[in-house]
Amino acid sequence: MAEAQELLRKYYGYPDFREGQKRVIESLLSGRDTLGIMPTGGGKSICYQVPALIMNGTTIVVSPLISLMKDQVDGLDSIGVPAAYINSSLSYAQVEMRIRKAERGEYKLLYVAPERLESERFLNLLAGLVVPMVAVDEAHCVSQWGHDFRPSYMRINELVSHLPDRPLLAAFTATATDQVREDIVKHLKLSEPQVFVTGFARENLSFSVIKGENKRDVLMGYIREHAGEAGIVYAATRKEVDQLCEYLLRQGVAAGKYHAGLTDKERADAQERFLYDEVRVMVASNAFGMGIDKSNVRYVVHFNMPKNMEAYYQEAGRAGRDGEPSDCMLLFSPQDIHIQKFLIEQSVSDPERQAQEYRRLQQMADYCHTPQCLQRYIVRYFGGDAEEDCGQCSNCVSPDMELTDITLEAQQIFSCVKRMRERFGMTLVASVLKGSRNKKVLDFGFDSLSTYGLMRTRTEKDIVDLIQLLVAEGYLQLTEGKYPVLRLSSKASDVLSGKERVVQRIRLKPSAPVIQDVEAELFDELRKLRTEIAKREGIPPYIVFPDSTLREMC
Ligand code: ADP
Ligand code: MG
């Protein structure tokens, strides 16, 4: 390890490995196949580059994108590490020449595009190399469950078996679902691998979830406060990207856009202008991503909730790659869940797979509703340990969140779910608790239930929020499928029987009816106060108090 540390200083100029890097490198140097699961920006490259420098021979790196490959090799060149790449941009003569050089031991790393592995002739050419290790970057491409399945990744094993000595295998990805992890181990034939899930806590990122506000207002407010900084705004559909970009341009923001409906040239131009800071804000669909490595992205705003936590964290993780403090803000509306359901229905036909996608969507929605530390939720989701709250996400800094005993409210909700025989979704349960006289409630005769109107002093939206919170915390479960139904979990039974209490960090709104006539003056005063607090604390005003809270205070 001392040698690795020395090389890190000498070539890269970094004083220390990150905690996760150290564990992966130690594992590889001890000769174990290793799977490293680290977030985007976590520093996966160094995990195989440094061991490659120590090992005898040429490490082969399989990497999916031609543009990334060239960047990596140029980067290595510039710090004096001999490396080369082989992909479809080279002529056969050039390929041969590079392999000759590799045979003579002139490269420590040889990057190979997976498509090359389809050629038997090419595999035979590689058989003459001394290869101590094969490193597979973006290893989730080997899994059909991942988001960028590449059939040629299945050929990596052919490469391994063509080599005279079985090399050490190192695989890296930012995708951490069990399914993908299993596929990587299985298809790459990792032998008794050590798996490390690390670095998912990105301390320089402040997460926030904003609900129930006008999204465009929040976004514009934020962009104005961060004029001059580079940011990405992700939206769910092409149409939304187009409209949002137009809106920002109308507001005088130097915005660009990127989605799969544009021509290659339009996309390349947009990316280039963003990279060179000509465009400050990039409005993009999820097509914008893997290829970009812009280090000074100060914020990533999700205008819509994405389909799962992997997608969210991959995209949000593009903020602050330089380690400077950056924001990741998600603007949630219940409509987002419907959009994502629709997109899943359109793109996934296999029922088992669909069920899984719905489950992951639910976990994404849970993130938007958890009252706990957001950073912690993320780290746990990816299978890491998080001992402490981050102290900077919107849940941690929200001054109006207090530990509140909501046992009574929870019991009311659970007994209503039970009375409705666990056969209905949260909207209808909320209507019944509210005592609403809508058609569905009356048609089912729910107005005669003993739980009917039990929570009539609250708004239906507040009741839905409470239900969502209880889902996020595992008291209630939502069945899979298009029309999820609320079910009680065993945790809920304990609450109903009075064995357990429910205490959550939450802001419970007063249940008395809110006075309608808002005193404009008072509202203005409160706003001024809010601005002061925000300035003093150095945080955006909407995090201090959203407008809705101010209105309630009036
Ligand atoms: P990933 O492939 O996991 O997305 P990269 O390997 O591209 O991440 O690394 C992301 C950034 O972190 C790069 O700019 C890299 O130079 C930097 N980095 C990696 N390891 C360290 C370290 N130990 N100390 C400081 N910076 C590091
Ligand atoms: Mg990488």
From TrEMBL:
<dbReference type="InterPro" id="IPR036388">
    <property type="entry name" value="WH-like_DNA-bd_sf"/>
</dbReference>
<dbReference type="GO" id="GO:0006281">
    <property type="term" value="P:DNA repair"/>
</dbReference>
<dbReference type="Pfam" id="PF00271">
    <property type="entry name" value="Helicase_C"/>
</dbReference>
<dbReference type="InterPro" id="IPR001650">
    <property type="entry name" value="Helicase_C-like"/>
</dbReference>
<keyword id="KW-0067">ATP-binding</keyword>
<dbReference type="Pfam" id="PF16124">
    <property type="entry name" value="RecQ_Zn_bind"/>
</dbReference>
<dbReference type="GO" id="GO:0003677">
    <property type="term" value="F:DNA binding"/>
</dbReference>
<dbReference type="InterPro" id="IPR011545">
    <property type="entry name" value="DEAD/DEAH_box_helicase_dom"/>
</dbReference>
<comment type="similarity">
    <text>Belongs to the helicase family. RecQ subfamily.</text>
</comment>
<dbReference type="InterPro" id="IPR006293">
    <property type="entry name" value="DNA_helicase_ATP-dep_RecQ_bac"/>
</dbReference>
<dbReference type="InterPro" id="IPR044876">
    <property type="entry name" value="HRDC_dom_sf"/>
</dbReference>
<dbReference type="GO" id="GO:0006310">
    <property type="term" value="P:DNA recombination"/>
</dbReference>
<dbReference type="Pfam" id="PF00270">
    <property type="entry name" value="DEAD"/>
</dbReference>
<dbReference type="Pfam" id="PF00570">
    <property type="entry name" value="HRDC"/>
</dbReference>
<dbReference type="Pfam" id="PF09382">
    <property type="entry name" value="RQC"/>
</dbReference>
<keyword id="KW-0862">Zinc</keyword>
<dbReference type="GO" id="GO:0016787">
    <property type="term" value="F:hydrolase activity"/>
</dbReference>
<dbReference type="InterPro" id="IPR014001">
    <property type="entry name" value="Helicase_ATP-bd"/>
</dbReference>
<dbReference type="GO" id="GO:0046872">
    <property type="term" value="F:metal ion binding"/>
</dbReference>
<keyword id="KW-0479">Metal-binding</keyword>
<dbReference type="GO" id="GO:0009432">
    <property type="term" value="P:SOS response"/>
</dbReference>
<dbReference type="GO" id="GO:0005524">
    <property type="term" value="F:ATP binding"/>
</dbReference>
<dbReference type="InterPro" id="IPR010997">
    <property type="entry name" value="HRDC-like_sf"/>
</dbReference>
<keyword id="KW-0233">DNA recombination</keyword>
<feature type="domain" description="Helicase C-terminal">
    <location>
        <begin position="215"/>
        <end position="362"/>
    </location>
</feature>
<feature type="domain" description="Helicase ATP-binding">
    <location>
        <begin position="25"/>
        <end position="194"/>
    </location>
</feature>
<dbReference type="GO" id="GO:0009378">
    <property type="term" value="F:four-way junction helicase activity"/>
</dbReference>
<dbReference type="InterPro" id="IPR027417">
    <property type="entry name" value="P-loop_NTPase"/>
</dbReference>
<keyword id="KW-0547">Nucleotide-binding</keyword>
<dbReference type="GO" id="GO:0030894">
    <property type="term" value="C:replisome"/>
</dbReference>
<dbReference type="GO" id="GO:0006260">
    <property type="term" value="P:DNA replication"/>
</dbReference>
<protein>
    <recommendedName>
        <fullName>DNA helicase RecQ</fullName>
        <ecNumber>5.6.2.4</ecNumber>
    </recommendedName>
</protein>
<keyword id="KW-0347">Helicase</keyword>
<dbReference type="InterPro" id="IPR002121">
    <property type="entry name" value="HRDC_dom"/>
</dbReference>
<keyword id="KW-0238">DNA-binding</keyword>
<keyword id="KW-0378">Hydrolase</keyword>
<keyword id="KW-0234">DNA repair</keyword>
<dbReference type="GO" id="GO:0043138">
    <property type="term" value="F:3'-5' DNA helicase activity"/>
</dbReference>
<dbReference type="GO" id="GO:0005737">
    <property type="term" value="C:cytoplasm"/>
</dbReference>
<dbReference type="InterPro" id="IPR032284">
    <property type="entry name" value="RecQ_Zn-bd"/>
</dbReference>
<dbReference type="InterPro" id="IPR036390">
    <property type="entry name" value="WH_DNA-bd_sf"/>
</dbReference>
<dbReference type="InterPro" id="IPR004589">
    <property type="entry name" value="DNA_helicase_ATP-dep_RecQ"/>
</dbReference>
